[in-house]
Amino acid sequence: MKNKKTSSLRIARMHIPSHIIMIIWCFISITPIALLIFNSLKDRKSLFMDPFGFPLNITFDNYTSVIKDSNFFRYFGNSLFVVVGSLTVVLLLGSLCAFALAHWKGKASKIIYFFFIVGMMLPIKIATIRLLELMKVLGLLNTLWSLLLVYSAMGMPIAIFVLTEFIRSLPSDLYDAAYIDGAKRLKIYYGIVIPLIKPALATVAIYNLVPIWNDLWFPLIFITKEEVKTVLLAVTRLQGQYATDWPKVFALLTMSALPVLILYLTMSKQFVAGLTAGAVKG
Amino acid sequence: MQNTKKVINRGGSSVNPGGSYWMWYILPALLVYAVFMAYPLVDSVRISFYEGTTQARTFVGFQNYIDLFTDEIYSSRFWNAFGNTWIFFAFHMLIQNCLGMLFAVILTNRTMKGRPFYQTITFLPVTIAVMVTGYLFKMLLNPQFGGYTLKDWGLNFLVHPWLGDKNTALPVISLVSVWQWVGIPTMMFVAGLQGVSDDILEAADIEGCNNWDVFWHIKLPIIMPVVGMIAILTFVSNFNAFDIVYAMTGPDGQPSYSTDLIGTLFYRYGIAGEHPVGIPTPGIGAAISTSVFIMLLAGVIPTLRATQGKE
User: Fold this and answer.
1) Is residue B180 a contact partner of residue B130, using CB atoms and an 8 Å limit?
2) Domains of chain A, start order
3) Which of A81, A197, B176, B221 has fewest C-beta within 10 Å?
4) With a CB-CB cutoff of 8 Å, which residues 15-74 of chain B face chain A?
5) Is the pLDDT of residue A20 over 90?
């Protein structure tokens, strides 16, 4: 009797139906991505002969011709500049502001905090028509600065929210001692606060990194000049240019997706924490 | 003594740095946010009452809204896109979020092996750009891609111009988007379910509750705030969806506007101009975005009240 119970428990603990469900879903998740990469390594003929198979004669010709046909590294640099630039602005200005909002106990502080938080619920796309005109007036159309500024503004609410909450949760004796010693606030900011809030800074950085790198909307509207195109914008044009040369389109798509994919696979824990940060009670 | 007290008190008193001092820390962030997000958002509402572009703008009152809702072409396009967006949203709520819940319940089984692996794979598509996903599936779904092979395998029913048929295009696009985003609700529900205390679950086990009872009567009520949050996120992002349609069936929402969403409609009227004229009408575009904005508030605020009430 006892034996029977433990063995049925053991079977229950194997969670067979759960494993079946997850294996099926993982197969559904991974197959399109595998097909993307496999087919980027085939030539045209073998793609059409065997579209679902593993590439037997691996060729990198598709990649080299995409790179040769376009300024791919240029687009890459542009995207990198925009991502790094706007993340720097968001993290630097956001943490300074959050430091002040967490420590200043005035009524105005609460109002300003609320003003920032409202932005978390409002998609910036709604403001596009006005932003387009604003960029025209400022002479920033067809420059990377237009993207950098919009993404910085877009990232600010979540940065203020996450960082202010985080700084508030730090034990206050950490600063009190420093205040008594007469330390300057700016020194407390970079000497004490910044090292302590590093995990929160990482969360904010990842939360913003993926949508900025993957954004198509603002480049599509602000940028028409070849030299300042981002990777994704260039992909829209090149995929039209290659049209039926599918292996090249596969290579192009792989190249644009790979950086974030690799980053994710090397630090998936931080990614999940960062990208689901919106759930921490809005 | 007085000196120490002065230093510790970091409120807004006159002796110590208060508002005017802290403002130097706040202003840079506030400026960027106000100029490039808050002001354009609010001013878009104003533009919806005007006609023409920056150079020549005339006040027309509610005319843009009247046109949008009563003009034959504008209103039929708007209500078509509006209905399509609700269908798109329904797919995400019913399939994406329910699958997310199922996966999360599975992935929080503490005795199950291989959970980190499953989590990593389930979340993988989230990191790919929506547009890349769109172009990828556009090729994979094309009958020319795998048609012959699938016929050889006897899977004829899979060979169909999915995106060219106006009855299947929107459901297929919705499912592709579900495929991509299912990792987000999964991981959010996982985070929520991990907060359910072991004591409650053990007590339920002793009382003889089965898994189904435990889910409906214990886990679900506890993670209700997360459910509400996900409903809101899904709602807001679906009513702004654009990239997936742009990549898979183009900005016109082909075939014959059957995949036109609010996001693509806004892009055509407000920014790019409707085919074949190509002259944008910012007033109409702003009227669309303001209507969406009002609708989002009308959907979001009651959901927040209903699900986040206790905190």
Assistant:
1) yes
2) 64-279 (1.10.3720.10)
3) B221
4) 17-19, 21-23, 25-26, 28-30, 32-33, 35-41, 43-44, 47, 53-54
5) yes
